[in-house]
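Weekly modeling sync, notes
Attendees: S.R. (lead), two postdocs, one rotation student

Agenda item 3: backlog of single-chain predictions. S.R. asked that every request posted to the team notebook include the full sequence so nobody has to chase files. The rotation student volunteered to paste the first one in as an example of the format we agreed on. Action items at the bottom.

Example entry:
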Amino acid sequence: MNLFDLSGRCAIVTGANTGIGQAIAVGLANSGADIIAVGRSSMEQTAALVEASGKAFHPLRADLSKMDEVRTVIERATAIRVRPDILINNAGIIRRADTIDLTEQDWDDVMDTNLKSAFFLCQAFARIAIEKKAPAKIINIASLLSFQGGIRVASYTAAKSGLAGLTRLMANEWSPHGINVNAIAPGYVETNNTTALRADAERNADILKRIPAGRWARADDMAGAAVFLASRASDYVHGTVLPVDGGWLAR
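Predicted structure, as returned to the notebook:
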């Protein structure tokens, strides 16, 4: 028996148009899962990569900063597939500013997309799994800033710290129903969100000095952890926040 085989299963992946979300969607598809990809921009590249693995790809357009759209995502997903088995909460944004200058709008934008939408997607997804008495997997994409403070990203740190806490709380409440709730905490990854950091020669050098692996992560470095947490291999793993950080937190 292949504990990592996801054949016959279906995963909802938010923010799947690029970066970590795209890499996770492709990784799950390569392990046998069909994909329902949620995003507000084109997902044609992700579709091509998923379909190249022979799995079904269903795009679902939604702006997760808007609660009226968030509320319909799981309902629309179940109309595509009677019962999706896996939820990956990856969609997120970041706003950089000195904390003394952070605006209320930047606070609300990040909290709504990164934390509030994730909570209500988890709630709707779990409600269906509990009603159907079906096992399910929820994987939230946390951050190193679920463990650390960071600088100039107050709303992002608050959201990711909150998401780690909610991951543990949901595991406490939903594990008796056969729902595994866990999170991945990526290290410094080469994505659109980190373009400014990588362009800053001094910050980039300081970050690399701290990473034992000696390089920034690639988005596809997150795929293996996602497959593990989505598969039967993790059936007795509940409430963990798994760093995939090249050893950053160990330094």
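Discussion: group reviewed the output briefly. The chain has a mean pLDDT of 96.
Action items: rotation student to repeat for the remaining queue; S.R. to check formatting next week.
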